[in-house]
Amino acid sequence: MSAPLLEVEDLVVEFKTPSGWVRAVDGVSWDVSPSEIHAVVGESGSGKSVTALSILRLLPMPPARIAQGAIRFHGTDLLAADERTIQAVRGGRIGMVFQEPMTSLNPVLTIGRQLTEGLREHRKLDRRAAQARAVELLEMVGISEPERRLKQYPHHLSGGMRQRVMIAIALSCDPELIIADEPTTALDVTIQAQILELMQDLCRRLGVALVVITHNLGIVARYADRVTVMYAGGVVEEGTADAVYHRSAHPYTLGLLNSVPRLDRPRGLPLEPIPGNPPDILDRPPGCQFQPRCGFALPHCRQSAPPLQRIEAASGPNLPSHRSACFESEALLADAVS
């Protein structure tokens, strides 16, 4: 098995508030293999985007601080790297697609100016070569009349076209990894599918690894190779997409799946939302962070937090990469298999 391209290890990120330091990411660890599509899933406030921004050191410090952990890209710790090294990685070797393209793109600069900036900075292309590459990139992401689009501004384009421009910018310098932070949030369901299909196709064709940050477990079912599920700043389950979707071993993952509309369910059957709300990170409950909302919670869940560990299934194959942070994981998995 090849070495991971990116490794996030025991990451702790805190923010300074009037009430003191608040821990938004609490000991998160996951990795990405070359050419892999890895989905990081969880509700708003689970720490997904903070983790993604920490990789490229895009968090404002202060008020943020990385209190613990390491983020290694090709074995180099990006948290300990100097500014010149991290600037070469941003856009050059790791591309980023942000949540809302209308606010991520500069409204007073043309599409062409924004698309060629990285090419001239990282690839040292002259103006003519950068323009030619920009046209090629817009064609690659399915935008018609690319020469004309280069002269337009973001407000001239639809939401789906703006997101395609963001993907083109992320791909412009031939990166090894793209991080897409909620790339389909502001789009309708038809355009969501088109964007995800496009990203999957380009990454497979170009051999680029992809990390998709999303709150919707349903939209990445057919695209991801592996899935990491986050809740309240920590990882609660991780494994192959097949394992997480078909052999879920954490009540939170089950709750996310049960709240997604499915065609294989009887018509008119109501969805099953997860009761309650995520914990207040200023006043975290003791023990398992999910236990106040969990229908499987036992007394000891309120006293100690379960570690993220490999699941030993009573029936069905054991998968070394399938891990869950739940005392009842094996019982849940046995019920699912039976």
What would you note in describing this structure?
The protein has helices spanning 48-55, 83-89, 101-104, 111-122, 127-140, 146-150, 159-171, 189-206, 241-246, 251-258, 329-337; strands at 6-17, 20-32, 37-41, 64-73, 76-77, 94-97, 177-181, 209-214, 226-231, 234-240, 309-310, 323-324. With 338 residues, the chain is of the alpha/beta class. The strands form two sheets. It has an eight-stranded mixed β-sheet, sandwiched between helices. Strands 2-1-4-5 form a four-stranded antiparallel β-sheet. Helix 5 (127-140) packs across helix 7 (159-171). The longest helix has 18 residues, at 189-206. The chain starts with 5 loop residues before the first strand and ends with a helix.
Task: Please supply descriptive tags for the structure shown above.
338 residues; alpha/beta; 8-stranded mixed beta sheet; 4-stranded antiparallel beta sheet; 11 helices; 31% helix; globular
The whole-angstrom Rg is 21 Å
Helix fraction, binned, reads: 25-40%
Tell me the number of helical segments per DSSP (H or I, 4 or more residues long): 11
Order of helices and strands: EEEHEEHEHHHHHEHEEEHHEEH
Low-confidence stretches: none
Largest sheet: 8 strands, mixed
The portion of residues forming beta strands comes to 15-25%
Strand order within the widest beta sheet: 6-7-8-3-9-10-12-11
Structural class: alpha/beta
